[in-house]
Amino acid sequence: MSRLINRRTVLWGLGATSLVAWADAPVGSKRFTLEWIAFKQPGNHAAPSPPPTIADVLALPGRVTALANSANQMTNTAQALNRKGHEVLSHQAWAAIIPPNGRTTATLHDVLSSPSPLSGAIAIQRGQHLLLNVEVDYQSVSGVTYGVREHRRIKFNEYHYFDHPAFGVIIQVRPPKNDAESDESGA
User: Fold this and answer.
1) Partners of residue 118 on adjacent β-strands
2) Residue pLDDT, tens place only, 70-80
3) 174 and 32 in contact (C-beta within 8 Å)?
4) Do the beta carbons of residue 139 and residue 116 sit within 8 Å?
5) Residue 118 · residue 106 · CB < 8 Å
6) What is the rounded CA–CA span in Å between residue 49 and residue 145?
């Protein structure tokens, strides 16, 4: 009985919420880390044509968890953007549990640590290739909304830049630590 109590204590100490979500994930799921920096481009920008509407997103509860700032590995990049006149709008990392041949979507209001002029969603899909889908809107102080909509094949640990004249997004996807060497394909 004491062995059972010790296991429960350890599980609770590690974060019962995350472990319950992990336990409910399909077999073969892996916990990937996504980190992003969204920044405002310097200068004034012409009013854009309205961005396409962001599709309704089904985000499964427990599959995405915002991480503490200590998990950020792109801090030097964010500082360099600030030095070059780009205002960093958001710099955040989150963990996403992604099943094999599956997709997990993070809505920005679920992962951003504070109110933001950014809205939308970022989805990652595992299959033969690793795919990233970015649908992000930025609402300027003047109320104009700019949008980025892009879907592309990516590789782990590379910086992926999504460009717009008014703002930009840099995303890095990192594999689970124990799979970094064995899974070079990106899936």
Assistant:
1) 138
2) 999 999 999 99
3) yes
4) no
5) no
6) 9
Are 171 and 132 contacting, i.e. CB atoms less than 8 angstroms apart?
A: yes
For residues 38 and 77, give the distance between their C-alpha atoms in angstroms, rounded to a whole number.
11
Q: How do residues 1-23 score in pLDDT, each as one tens digit?
A: 444 444 333 333 333 334 434 44
Residue type, 91: H
Q: What tokens were used for 157? A: 């640990």
Running DSSP on this structure, what letter comes out for residue 60? P
Cross-strand pairs, 94:
34, 66
pTM of the model: 0.77
Residues paired with 121 in a beta bridge: 107, 135
Closest CA to 108 of 88, 87, 91: 91
90 contacts: CB under 8 Å, gap ≥ 6: 36, 37, 38, 112, 116, 118
